[in-house]
Specification:
Shape: globular
Number of helices: 6
Helix content: 25-40%
Length: 172
């Protein structure tokens, strides 16, 4: 377990250096880390490698949460998805959780705020999420404009989130 803690501390500190902000005293406890890349960029491969190498739980969010919410009515589904997602992260073993395939959280019919939900999940654990999108320094986007799941967040929305490209994360 000491190697896992050392590894995540290195991920956190390295990513903070790349983001240009100093680490807070409790930075290695909790927090949201987003690995940015478009489809086919290697986000899933990277998370699976970290899961295998360091023993972090790997969660396929869309598959897991969809299975858990099948019995809910359409009106109950938004709150059920939110609850089941938070429960999946909270009940995962360890202090670091890898979340992949988060597209369900962006489904327009659920009316969720995926970034807020991810931040909520990252209050007590470090949540590292594969994000199908990009950042230009002032905007974080998920999907591309015109896509049903497209969302854009301002730099103030993500000021407490560490953003890393797949290439930056692979270099850690």
């Amino acid at each position: 377990m000491a190697n896992c803690n050392y590894f995540i501390k290195e991920v956190v500190l390295s990513s903070l250096m790349l983001s240009g902000r100093p680490p807070a005293p409790d930075e290695e406890k909790g927090g949201l880390r987003i690995i940015l890349g478009r489809t086919g960029s290697g986000r899933t491969t990277l998370l699976r490698k970290w899961a295998d190498r360091h023993g972090y739980p790997y969660l396929n969010i869309s598959s897991l949460v969809s299975q858990r919410t099948l019995g809910y009515s359409l009106s109950e589904r938004p709150s059920a998805v939110q609850h089941e997602f938070l429960d999946a992260v909270e009940s995962a073993e360890g202090d670091v959780v890898l979340c992949d395939n988060i597209e369900l959280l962006f489904a327009s019919e659920l009316f969720l705020d995926p970034l807020r939900l991810l931040k909520q999940a990252a209050r007590r654990k470090t949540v590292i999420v594969a994000w199908n999108g990009a950042s230009d320094g002032s905007t974080l986007s998920y999907a591309v404009p015109g896509h049903d799941e497209y969302q854009a967040y301002s730099h103030t929305d993500v000021q407490d989130v560490v953003l890393l490209s797949v290439n930056e994360a692979n270099a850690l």
